Fold Redox-sensing transcriptional repressor Rex.
Amino acid sequence: MAGFKIPGITVYRLALYARTLEKLLEEGKDIISSEELARECGVNSAQLRKDLSYFGQFGVRGVGYSIPALLRHIRRILGAGREWFMVLMGAGHLGQALLKYEFLPKRGFKFVAAFDIDEEKIGRVVNDVYVYHLNQLSWVLREHPAEIGVIATPAKAAQEVADLLIENNIKGILNFAPVRIKHPPNVIVEHSDLTILFDKLAFYLNRLD
Amino acid sequence: MAGFKIPGITVYRLALYARTLEKLLEEGKDIISSEELARECGVNSAQLRKDLSYFGQFGVRGVGYSIPALLRHIRRILGAGREWFMVLMGAGHLGQALLKYEFLPKRGFKFVAAFDIDEEKIGRVVNDVYVYHLNQLSWVLREHPAEIGVIATPAKAAQEVADLLIENNIKGILNFAPVRIKHPPNVIVEHSDLTILFDKLAFYLNRLD
């Protein structure tokens, strides 16, 4: 499996399948057909079978998938189950919402520190996470190692903050600022674009009329 | 085209193509091959050609796509270019970040009012949007009609708030609360799950090691 390239959109769908399987498990379901799982996820079932076939064969023809087994397998593929330590860059509204988002630590994503340059915010503690001045980043990362940097700064600060993270050996960046980050190829950057969600909703609303 | 069902994930990819084309256009590009566009978007090129073929033929074999023409076409499919009026439910950190998110009005998504039940927040004006008490929802919607409700409340309040929106004839809901909303079939609900982004990043980080 190592070395073969899985498209980003496939990984996105795997995470979506995992979320949906978790929900079905909570609802007390145990077995599901690929058609039903595809419908729950809003993908077509040929697509779903193709995605899962990347990683070997699952499911029993005519019976369906075991939800716990499939979920375990997808989680293993996604590398879920381990803990990731993160620093937050920018403790504004979005940043504080992320610090308070209870579903992140539940899934193993833990903030060890937050950074800002606004004296008003420095020294605050949000959901047990301390807000440091940006110039303490190197020092804090030596004390509290982290693998992921989450950027929730204004657009104009995002590249500078990303460069600092990369200098300090952060290998994964999730960027919520609405700007593309330039980065070396050995650093992974995911961009979040909330407007895509609004576009998707608008598309379906247009078709209602 | 009417009446034929396009999977949610296809619509998501169309919005992603639109964002990427906008970026390429800003960078001064005019023509792109399907392979190059697919690479920029992180999808495979067979997938991209298949998605676009839903809506007719584009591009010239051996030459590629005209970026402005393709973008215009995708925007038309997505129903972009019109304005959507929205109410925000919950003016906490995430809600205020959304009110301040400059990329939404740029793309035609405009908040007309915000609602909360916290007396501290009621009466505030965030980025020209007034925060009302939740019990003024019907009255405000009569004065300022809106099509979309954005839920940024705690999980436990989300269903009640969604029910209120639906009673008041809102047809589209974007739910940021980490809980599934029950709704009649003539209302469109999109759920945003930020944890999927973190999962995707973790997947690629695991493969770096």
Q: What stands out?
A: The two ends of chain B are 47 Å apart (CA to CA). The CA atoms of residues 32 and 160 of chain B lie 47 Å apart. Chain B has two domains: 8-76, 84-195.
